[in-house]
Amino acid sequence: MNDFSTVIIGGGISGLTCAKYLNEKGYGFMLLEGSDALGGRVRTDKVDGFLLDRGFQVLLTNYPEAKKILNYNNLDLKYFTSGSMIKAEKGFMKMENPFRNKMAYITMAFSSVGSLSDKLKIRKFANDLAEIPDEDFFKMDATDTLTFLKNYGWSDKMINNFFKPFFGGVFLENDLVTSSNFFQFVFKQFFRGDAAIPADGIQAIPEQIAEMIPNNRIRKNSRVKGFEGNQIFLEGGEVLTADKIVVATDPHTSDDLLGETNKRTYNITTCTYFSAESSPLKGEKFIALNPNRRGVVHNVCVPSDISINYGSAGKSLISVSTQGLDRLDERNLTSRIKRELFDWFGAQVNVWKHLKTYHIPESLVQYRAGSVKQDLKLADNLYRCGDYLSYPSLNAAMQTGREVAGMIMEA
């Protein structure tokens, strides 16, 4: 006889979070993960001694759900400088967060990123958002982000130099068609908290959540073929029985298991990693943005400047993010990246060693104005969770996992 009443299918962030909350209250469950490791998209690989996150990812420390369950000290978080470096015709312009660094008011005043009026609007906007509870953002009327920025009064210069490269990188789309209420939520998280990575890679986040769950409640390499009623059928022929089933997989797998056909638009990204003898950003703990959205390179980061553990044998790890170049093969993409970055950093780029390219065609489900949260409870015994059901973020993955656990406990 089973000693669990709930089966959770999928060991990504939402499934792990659901399991964590059920375990906390003594509910019996079994979490089934089809692969050999937990984390879903939040994974880290080791290549030639370097730590490569599967796509450029950061943790926003002000995320309300993350603060509920993660121990930041134990993650040994390493922090970015709040703000960004923006590629200029010669060198870089800095856009620092004045809420995190009081001296940033001086550098902002003399920066050519935008006008003085633009910069004063940044301060006012951040103060206004600080007063809005996080859960209220998604109840607000919304437009696309670009329309919102223009209506707020920011100049084209500020939009093109800062908002498009920065939030285009966050949303993984160039035209800022993403919903303005999600933009406001994310803007608040950046300005009220920090962007960070765990010292030993982004996979430390799901691993920490998994540590809150007994080992005998997690089964890896257990792929589910389907379910009917209260029976779950695994590849290999095993059949499990449970009162409650939670589908916590990626959207495609969820559709297959639930027999649904959903048309979704995804934002695409490609992350290419290089090793170098030294950091091209000279130890600056910023993300370097490209305001030229027709360029190949959208942003550059040196994770080993943030956490030394990402590097190997004293060498630097460089992360380059590109969008919309999914039809280029790896060799041609690498060559184009190097040619473009020659204009940024000079001849040192020629000797960078390509480590690996991660092409992620279904990185984020596009979140446009009018998007609504989908039902998490599908039947008396059937639930689902995942950020694609709400809004694309680590926070939403955790939130939907927590909410499903609450529904199960209230049933």
From TrEMBL:
User: Where does the Amine oxidase domain start and stop, copy by copy?
Assistant: 13-406
Q: Which domain of life is it from?
A: Bacteria
Q: Which PANTHER family match?
A: AMINE OXIDASE
Q: What is this protein called?
A: Amine oxidase domain-containing protein
